Amino acid sequence: MDSTIHEPTVTGPPGPEPGPAARLRAEAARRLGIRLEVLDPDTGCLQALSDGRRRRVLVTGMSPLNDAGAARLAGDKYYAGEILRRAGFRVPAGTRCLREGAFELSTFPEHTGLEPAFRFAERQGFPLVVKPNRGARGRDVAVVSTEAELKEAVRRVWRMDYLALVQECVEGFDLRLDFLDGELLLGYTRQPVVLEGDGSTPLRRLLAGWDRRFYGPAFEERLARDSFWQRRVLDRGLGLDSVLTRGENLALTDAVLNLNRLCVARMLEALPAAWLEHGRVLGRTLYLRHFGLDLKVPGGAGDLSGDPARAAVLEVNASPSLGQTFERGEKEAAIAAEMKVLRAILETGAPVGGATQESGDGP
Fold first, then answer.
1. Runs of H (alpha helix) within 6-165
2. I need a surface site. Which of 67, 91, 153, 333 has the fewest CB within 10 A?
3. How far is CA 7 from CA 29, 32, 33, 142, in A?
């Protein structure tokens, strides 16, 4: 057996600068003595893991631990919500808006165009949440308060997804739970950012003081494209170099809370047994081994003393990433969780049959 397999190493030609999820996976592999080979150095997205016994090729951003059918269901937010609703879970009320011309053979007129959104807004009232039926990281998710904003948000979604979801805006605090085979990998609550002025510190430095991720050219480039930042800050004539007067607050509270956007997290030290079982049952309902669960919990921030059945299921992620947790400084918790994921992935790999495969040169 090639002993170098057990050396903590990442092999492959130089590629693009790895993101936080890639750096986390490399560190977890290093600690486990797993060989991580980059098979597509141009993107870094195709990788192979090997521990000398088994080898598994995977695409970054996709968990190989769920079967294709389960991942497909979870990736469709409307279908996942419908399955959970019928199983007794609370999900946000909403409707779907199909982009005109999305299908050639079926038109689904009752669900096509902007009219379903307007009808739902008339019944439900504002504010509402608009999101793509597919996608992650909070991309193109918006909270809207007027019919004009609703129209704009749905059309923005249609540029990247043929189906836009329009949902009630559920009250409460955000809870994220990541599971693997019924075990809680980690959990945290999301919290909005509130910038407090002192009369001298620019917004750029105030943001960096909240979270180490909120700094640098890459962050500022993403921020400039963020529709919420545009509405809440830029449209008010403010920018990263602006200075708030002493006592003036800039509350970024109506943003959709996602660690890939403007929010911070507080890690859970423990999860009550009722919430743990709630997550396990939900995972079984969607046939998932590995998943992230986004909940909106009623009550005070961080209060998990209530019945988990009252929490609304916002989304279920069949390929959860711990990269942002790693990046924001909770490194050991993220590494420990990622190590469990890598062990599980390798157990699904093909047995290594010879030195050629062990070295990563085989199919």
1. 20-32, 68-75, 77-86, 115-124, 147-158
2. 67
3. 10, 9, 5, 46
Residues 6+ apart with CB under 8 A from 240: 202, 203, 204, 207, 220, 223
**Max Cα–Cα distance, the chain, nearest Å:** 68
For residue 341, CA distances in Å to 32, 65, 185, 223, 347 come to: 11, 9, 9, 31, 10
Residue 166 near residue 116 (C-beta atoms within 8 A): yes
> Which CATH architecture group holds 93-169?
2-Layer Sandwich (3.30)
Reported as a single tens digit per residue, the pLDDT across 168-183 is 999 999 999 999 999 9
Q: Is the dihedral of CA 300, 303, 307, 313 positive or negative?
A: positive
Give per-residue pLDDT as tens, 321-347.
999 889 888 999 999 999 999 999 999
Spatial distance between the Cα atoms of 188 and 123, rounded to a whole number of angstroms: 34
Domain ranges of the chain: 3-61+334-358, 93-169
